[in-house]
Amino acid sequence: MGTTGILVIALAACSGGGGSATVVPPAQPPASSAVPSSTPAQADPVKRALSELSVQEKVGQLFMPVLYGTAADSVSGENQARYGAQTPAKVIDRYHLGGVILFPANVKSVDQVVKLNNDMQKAADLPLLIATDQENGPVSRMSALMTPFPGAARIAATKDVKVSRAVARATGEELRALGVNLDFAPVADVNIDPRNPVIGERAFGDRPAEVSRMVAAAVKGFNDAGVIATAKHFPGHGDTHVDSHTGLPVIDHTRAQWKRLDAPPFKAAIGAGVEAIMSAHIVFPKLDPSGDPATLSKPILTGLLRQELGFKGVISTDALNMAGVREKYGDGEVAVRAVLAGADLLLMPYDLPKAYNAVLAAAKSGRISEQRLDQSVTRLLKLKQARGLLAEPPVASVKEAAKVVRSPAHRKLAASVP
After folding, report:
1. Which of 239, 292, 318, 351 is catalytic?
2. Model confidence band, residue 79 (pLDDT cutoffs 50, 70, 90)
3. 245 an active-site residue?
4. Is the Hydrolase keyword given for this protein (predicted)?
5. What residue segments make up the domains of the chain, in order of their start?
6. Measured between alpha carbons, how far is 227 from 216 in angstroms, rounded to an integer?
7. Which CATH class is domain 58-416?
């Protein structure tokens, strides 16, 4: 455990009850004995945590890789291939990870997932963002355990924003009970191209206004549940017939078209309080003529999302193991360029050691300035603080999860959607 984790434990121990003895202060304490006021770093838990991190630990906070297997203390075959003889817990410790993402291969039972998440939290320097893609419908990584809620297209067909909010809240409640605190949902893309091979029914439709209403409601539902929502895929993945998992789509929308067609759901998500937004591995030549995908584009991530739309939360990349982003620059350089473009969270690097070492080298050389690195780490720490993760390491309860996951109320809600 890193120094920050030790500090958290020490503070928790100091705050416990220990009797009610009365202490009588001196009647007139000398001026020199006055307790100095707290410095900003001491008073603010985010600043305090940041001040205690080494550059290696700061870089680690940016990464959210896949860790393989169903237990934190055992080495699966895939984990062996990726990380050598290291358990997920050791990978978390070695790279000072800020987050992990769960996939179906990590999931066997409610008890097992709760234990996995709790054990991974114990291994971390700072509490982890534990994420998954539980959009419902075709992309549902936790479907082996969770209530089978309908996906976005079916929810949109109800034309009822209350349904969108209720399903997102119930989804978030189940995730939180399992120890998952971030969901890469909802999809905020407007599915303009009916040939779209990767979005399709994952979207709330092909009309910006209707998609915006449903996205905003879903964000509020996740917030109701205390789970971080992530609007994706910025600046919009709806008008493409190329899958960015296997290729690099190009969208020729003008800036005016983007504002009218693609931007509204992301603006609505921001207005609803979304805390994270995921980038798309898509080239928008009219928004950035460089030829780089949005994930690596400073004009798009910093210019449009930060400055024009005013988003102050965490920007996550889409998975960095996708062909649409990694082939041009390689697995180390792509991570560095994503940070320079404005990304805070580096999701699923194909080669974690290579990506981590590349970002660390860029930080040490000054290519990624200390200020730029601290900006991203601060946003991630603020996100953790907002969800209570910095106060004490989160612990999921098997008993609570058994009550919440696939509860009668949630199954009734799912069955009520036509």
Report:
1. 318
2. confident
3. yes
4. yes
5. 58-416
6. 15
7. alpha beta
